[in-house]
Amino acid sequence: MAEPASATSPELAGGSLRSRYRFLRRFAHLALAYWTAEERWKASALTVALLLLTLMQVGLAIWTNYWNGALFDALGERSVPKFLTQIGIFAIIFILTMCVTAIHLQVKRTLQVSWRQWLTARVVDRWMAEKRHYHLIFTPGEHDNPDGRIAEDVHIVTENAISLAHTLVYSIFILGSFIDILLSVAGSTTFSVRGSSFYIPGYMVLLAFLYAGVGTGMGLVLGQPLVRSTNGLQTTEANFRFALARARENSESIGLLGGERMERLRSSRLFADIRRWWSRQTLALTWILFFTSGYGALLPVFPILVMAPQYIAGTMTLGVLMQSAQAFQKLTSALSWPIDNLADMARWRASAERVLSLHDDLQKLDEARAKLDENRIAVGKAVGETLIVRDLRIARPDGQVVLDGLNLQVRTGERLLIDGDAGAAIDLFKVVAGLWPWGRGEVLLPAASSIFFMPRNPFIPHGTLEEALSYPDAAGTFSRDDLHDALESAGLGYLVTRLDEADAWDRSLTVRGQQRLSFARLFLRRPSWIFMQEATDAFDAKSETKIMEAVLSCLPGVTLITIGFHAALEPFHQRKLCLERAADGRYLFGGPPAPKLPELSEIDETYSG
């Protein structure tokens, strides 16, 4: 499992204006391109519809405020006709509010899921293309648990961003509307201090700004620990989920080794991290709640207490008092948007940082790959149908050399067996497959030939057997007759009747059965070049001989490069390349010749120290 990421990024901890600007610019570059991408017309239409519905919500809030004043005036006058009129008006407001709210929810969620789908596809495409998903494992940076970042954090980023944007726009319109309302209904006031009179125009508006300013300032100060703790908690939660998923995927090996105790200890340690960050977040939330509960409880009472002397003096009607109090609450709530949404903003920022970190590290990976220096293995196409390896040096990502000075040519129709040290052989297999770029030298693949790589443990997706057999192509790509023939040739004829059956085939089949399924895929595609990496290591000698005979019978003239360590493989190859570990851990050209195989056409090659 990847090492847990740092709980708090420098930008989150610093919180400077420059870091926030840089964060927003990075986020806009990654995510806001949705509004200029291929779905820009759909995105723009949904955005405009959402804005119009938000304006309708603001209009209904203004209408409700005036209705509130008229209602209390009717009650103050004890007028039944006016009261009944207000009931009728309220029925209209009530129906419109329900309709607008329901339609708004539909549009908002449609925009959220559309944006999420686009951003998820963009990140997944970048992650899976050109072997980046594999290279990223060996690349330094904060990109642990990329699956969690894509599945969970992209969800939070898109959903919270639209929700926060909606409430912010709503608050801005409410702010502009209710300032005007409060100025018109509450007016100004005059108060006396020691015989001196002071006239304050729009005093309720000033009080609303003061009340909200104090609340927002205190909330931002108290909310800084919440930002850090939320980021830390989300990181540790992702690490915990990843560990459990890894244990599930390897449950058989864990059970055979009796590793349950270690897995429980690992889970306990990871959950201890969750609990530590949970406690920090709880403390941060406690301070926020302590302040906001008092702030919210005082809000509906405060304007009434301030304006009560005017009502008692008879200079203000009951309707104006209640309308002003409600306008004060609306205005203050709009001004308090930062503090009211602090937790959601912290959660959104933490998730956005995790998605951006993954995207940035993928970008760095591309930049490193683009540099044509001697520390990258160049994999390209040969002029003819020959595999050429020139001056190949394979290194670890940290620069440690594990194989050096390898030159090799394999022509069409040849069959080469590679044995010796398994680690070096597998490294060579990864280089040829384009999975391992670290080192230097050149690998030129046959220009026009179809190449099929067979790993030791083939990936078998869950679903129907046809989907597992056709992978990486979609079900329906091959005819049923071809599927039946492939299964028969691979020794899986007993599964022919189960092609439409859905199962977890990577668990239903034995290891040998899974390797046979890989051979069935080979027979389906009938490539001209085959690269095998211990693809028969689960077979006994008799079964291994039979499957290799099937390969050469079904694919006469195929070029075969096999990494294997069974003697039964030798008769099926024309020459052998032996890799032996030197004293310093590297594999160097030279050493005694490998033993000859039956019917060899060329001298064997041995790499040793």
Which short descriptors sum up this protein?
single chain; 609 residues; alpha/beta; ABC transporter transmembrane region fold; Rossmann fold; 2 domains; six-stranded parallel sheet; four-stranded mixed sheet; 19 helices; 14 strands; 60% helix; disordered N terminus; disordered C terminus
Overview of this protein structure:
The protein has 19 helices and 14 strands. The chain is of the alpha/beta class. The protein folds into 2 domains: 17-370, ABC transporter type 1, transmembrane domain (ABC transporter transmembrane region fold); 378-607, Rossmann fold. Strand 11 (529-533), helix 19 (541-554) and strand 12 (559-563) form a beta-alpha-beta unit. The radius of gyration is 35 Å and the shape is elongated.
Reconstruct the topology from this structure.
Layout: H1 10-14, H2 17-31, H3 40-77, H4 80-128, H5 132-135, H6 146-186, E1 189-193, E2 196-200, H7 203-249, H8 251-257, H9 260-298, H10 302-312, H11 318-335, H12 337-340, H13 342-370, E3 378-381, E4 386-395, E5 401-411, E6 415-420, H14 422-432, E7 439-445, E8 451-454, E9 463-464, H15 465-470, H16 480-489, E10 502-503, H17 505-508, H18 511-525, E11 529-533, H19 541-554, E12 559-563, E13 575-579, E14 605-607
Parallel strand pairs: 3-7, 6-12, 6-13, 8-11, 11-12, 13-14
Antiparallel strand pairs: 1-2, 4-5, 4-7, 9-10
Helix pairs in contact: 2-13, 3-4, 3-6, 3-11, 4-6, 6-7, 6-11, 6-13, 7-9, 7-11, 7-13, 10-11, 16-18
